[in-house]
Write a structure and sequence with these properties.
This protein has 331 residues and is of the alpha/beta class. It is built from eleven helices and nine strands. The protein has two domains: 6-211, Spore Coat Polysaccharide Biosynthesis Protein SpsA, Chain A; 225-327. Strands 1, 2, 3, 4, 5, 6, 7, 8 and 9 form a nine-stranded mixed sheet that branches. Helix 8 (251-273) runs parallel beside helix 10 (299-315).
Length: 331
């Protein structure tokens, strides 16, 4: 019988109308050795009163406010929850999603029976109002460890934040969620764990349900320059990894991935430039120039990209110049 404690960490913001369903699904877990740490990002609705009623029923629930000296946002709340946790396992969850009753039990069992694994993920489904209207599946195309970094960078392998159960020991003394990011935080966090050598398994079962159709605590607007900049910054981190000497990937794959990353960067650069002033785009321009200089490209490709990013910088035009579709290796 497995009995290691699981720390469930839930950031929340103005979820009084939804968080009760989430906490009910936590209470319904057949695995009972858990603590649930809820970190409020500054709610102005009845969130505190709702959670107080759950704490009154079950002392395994804990409620904290984000300190005013910490960055606002879900990432800081996730990190704060981790700092307060006492479990051997960590489960970050969202305040509007719902757990299957077997969620924790099956993931704890997988990790207890496979001591070499660092985390365990699972499939999920999307719903709008109730889990009776489940529709879209969240199943990554790739679910195994082989070539994990390569498949993760191109999006064939992914992990939703609530999906994974983590051994706490592998998370100690490392950067967790980047509190400066407005978007791509989930991808950034999991990328860091993979390049650190994190080993995982994917349970090919739907064990939680993801709510969609409302504004999230995480900013995800495609028209928000801060969100777009966060995605650009994530791909900069990927490029820095690819440009460093490493024995994880073959040279041929590294060059393919560098071209793909540049393809993604210049597309975000174009979108950001059209939403931002000239001065704010200069740094991105310089970073792309540096990346282009460190990848094996044909002369005409270099010329096209170089003139493209200049035209975009000065005139907010020239998308066709930087849109090198052949660099997109996702298909």
């Amino acid at each position: 019988m497995f009995n290691n404690k699981v720390s469930i960490i839930i950031p929340t913001y103005n979820r009084a109308h939804l968080i009760g369903e989430t906490l009910d699904s936590v209470l319904a877990q057949i695995y009972t050795n858990w603590e649930c740490i809820i970190v409020d990002d500054g709610s102005i609705d009845d969130t505190e009163e709702i959670i107080a009623s759950y704490i009154k029923k079950d002392m395994r629930f804990q409620y904290y406010h984000r300190p005013i000296d910490r960055q606002k946002g879900a990432n800081a709340c996730r990190n704060i929850g981790y700092e307060l946790s006492n479990g051997e396992y960590i489960k970050w969850f969202d305040s509007d999603d719902i757990m299957h009753p077997d969620f924790l039990a099956k993931q704890v069992q997988a990790l207890e029976q496979n001591k070499d694994l660092d985390f365990c993920a699972s499939f999920s489904k999307k719903f709008i109002k109730t889990i009776d209207d489940l529709n879209e599946d969240f199943y990554p195309e790739i679910t195994f460890d082989k070539n994990a970094i390569y498949n993760f960078i191109i999006g064939k392998l992914y992990f939703l934040t609530p999906s994974s159960l983590w051994r706490k020991r592998i998370l100690e003394d490392i950067e967790l969620f980047d509190e400066t990011l407005y978007n791509a935080h989930e991808t950034d966090f999991n990328f860091k764990r993979l390049i650190e050598g994190g080993k995982f398994c994917y349970l090919e079962e739907v064990l939680f349900y993801v709510r969609r159709g409302h504004q999230s605590i995480d900013k995800e607007s495609i028209n928000d320059p801060l969100c777009l900049q966060s995605q650009f910054d994530y791909f900069q981190k990927v490029y820095q990894f690819l440009n460093s000497s490493n024995e994880v990937l073959e040279d041929a794959k590294i060059n393919k991935l560098k071209k793909y990353v540049i393809y993604r960067e210049v597309n975000f650069y174009y979108e950001i430039r059209n939403l931002s002033c000239f001065k704010e785009s200069i740094n991105n321009f310089k970073l792309i120039l540096k990346d282009i200089a460190n990848v094996n490209l044909r002369f005409l490709e270099i010329l096209r990209l170089f003139f493209g990013i200049i035209v975009i910088l000065f005139f907010k035009k020239g998308y066709w110049l930087i849109h090198l579709k052949k660099f997109d290796i996702r298909r």
